[in-house]
Specification:
The chain has 453 residues and is α/β, with parallel strands linked by helices. It has 18 helices and 15 strands. Strands 7, 8, 9, 10, 11, 12, 13, 14 and 15 form a nine-stranded mixed sheet that branches. A six-stranded mixed sheet has the order 3-2-1-4-5-6. A hairpin with a 5-residue loop joins strand 5 and strand 6. It starts with 14 loop residues before the first strand and ends in a 15-residue tail after the last helix.
Length: 453
């Protein structure tokens, strides 16, 4: 929540000037106030600062995922009461380049603080008014102007107050605004719902009656609530880069009607450069699953396929849904042109719960959808190609689709009682055989692959 502001004129010590210029332009100085430039800057003289001095690589805004939070921290630590931003001209609005993205990030960061915002020659605005002003300009003059397609961001959240806040600020910073935002809160006990109501009134919040629901069910609630042509499927702990929606929609618009999902690039803590930059991870291709933490989907296709299978509870649900999409004649595109920061560390999460659901759900999905010849081979292949797969192979980018299997061998070795957990997972597979066989529909589409690669 924002704190009350005392009425007084901001001074040099509580004003933050974000000039956002490029290195080949001289950094601006305004009355000796701090200046933050997009690249470089004279960080050794006067009060000039640079994004590099904040820990961000020059020219790599797409990977500067903590920028909004960093500006927010600066507002709080230095008791900033006024933020000065450069003017936005028509060319910048239509091009949606780095500087516009940084301005959007700064306005988003300010929107949950009680500060004055000055943008070019515009009259001073409070932070909420500045956010609404910029959103209106982006809608009417920005990169998505004239495009009637509508998108709802759907987030499933549970006890991740800080992450959800960062996620929603990233959504506010989009250079092409979302039409609607739906958060389904799984009865969090950390104040997530209260924070959303107080600081993000534009969000449609659904609070589940208790926390016993799985991610599959809470996402389905969000999907059913969406009223737009497209839905962005987002985990609670992602931060979208400012161009994410614009670039994803542009790419979707270049695809045939049969493309149901655009699965965007995800960067995570601990992700090796060799994986992140590998050709396989960055090449455009059709695939047999999608990254459920950040993908753009056609709502009609998701509805037609029936959404996530709620019996899975969590993990493996994206591949399961993709199999049904493939059976309906749809396809899923891997697209690296829009990037997302996912706060969950790279690879499968360690722990009993993760190991159980990953192991169980991989087999439940394949019993329903794998061709018989592949299903018969699956147990042997799971041992030889997943459990015994080397770390070097996983980090090189050879595992591009079955990212939930990265590190599964390590999880088996390091999780206490792992073989008992796998035994319980196998027992659950046997218990669910009637359910799976009743729904069995082997996929014949050429995009289908077993969850190994």
């Amino acid at each position: 929540m924002t704190a009350p502001r005392t009425e007084s004129t901001p001074t040099a010590t509580d004003r933050l000037v974000l000039d956002l210029r490029f290195r080949d332009l001289p950094p601006a100085q305004e009355g000796g106030h701090p200046v933050v430039v997009l690249e470089g800057g004279d960080g050794e003289s006067g009060d000039a600062e640079s994004l590099e001095s904040w820990g961000y690589a020059a020219g790599a805004l797409g990977r500067s995922h903590g920028l909004i939070e960093r500006i927010g921290e600066r507002i709080e630590s230095d008791s900033i009461r006024e933020i000065v931003l450069p003017a936005i001209d028509d060319e910048e609005l239509s091009a949606a380049g780095d500087r516009l993205a940084l301005i959007a990030a700064a306005v988003s960061a300010a929107s949950v603080h009680d500060v004055i915002v000055r943008i070019g020659e515009e009259d001073p605005m409070d932070s909420g008014e500045a956010y609404r002003w910029l959103r209106h300009r982006l809608r009417t003059e920005g990169p998505g102007r004239g495009d009637s397609r509508t998108v709802t961001a759907v987030i499933s959240a549970w006890n991740k107050y800080k992450d959800v806040r960062a996620n929603l600020l990233g959504i506010r910073a989009q250079v092409r605004p979302f039409d609607d935002v739906v958060v389904v809160d799984n009865h969090s006990s950390d104040g997530t719902a209260q924070m959303i109501r107080a600081d993000f009134p534009e969000v449609r919040l659904v609070v589940m009656p208790n926390s016993a629901y799985g991610a599959c069910e809470t996402f389905n609630v969000g999907f059913s609530t969406a009223l737009t042509e497209y839905i962005a499927i987002l985990d609670d702990d992602v931060v979208l880069t400012p161009w994410w929606l614009d670039r994803s929609l542009v790419r979707m618009g270049q695809e045939p009607e049969t493309t149901a999902v655009v699965s965007t690039k995800v960067v995570e803590p601990g992700m090796p450069d060799s994986y992140r930059d590998s050709e396989a991870v960055n090449a455009e291709r059709y695939m047999s699953t999608f990254r459920g933490c950040a993908s753009l989907a056609k709502k009609k296709a998701i509805d037609e396929a029936g959404g996530y299978d709620e019996r899975l509870f969590i993990y493996g649900n994206e591949r399961d849904l993709t199999c049904r999409l493939l059976n309906l004649g749809y396809r899923v595109l891997q697209f690296s042109g829009a990037e997302t920061w996912h706060r969950t560390p790279f690879g499968v999460q360690m722990g009993k719960r993760s190991l159980y659901f990953h192991a169980r759900n991989a087999f439940l999905g394949m019993i329903k959808y794998a061709p018989l010849k592949d299903l018969v081979r699956l147990p042997f292949l799971a041992v030889t190609k997943v459990l015994f797969r080397g770390r070097e192979s996983e980090e090189s980018g050879t595992v591009t689709d079955a990212v939930g299997t990265i590190g599964i061998g390590k999880s088996v070795r390091e999780t206490k009682g792992s073989w008992w957990i796998l035994t319980k997972a196998a027992a659950s597979v046997v218990y669910n055989l009637p359910y799976c066989l009743k729904r069995r529909e082997p996929v014949k589409a050429p995009d289908f692959e077993l969850p190994l690669q």
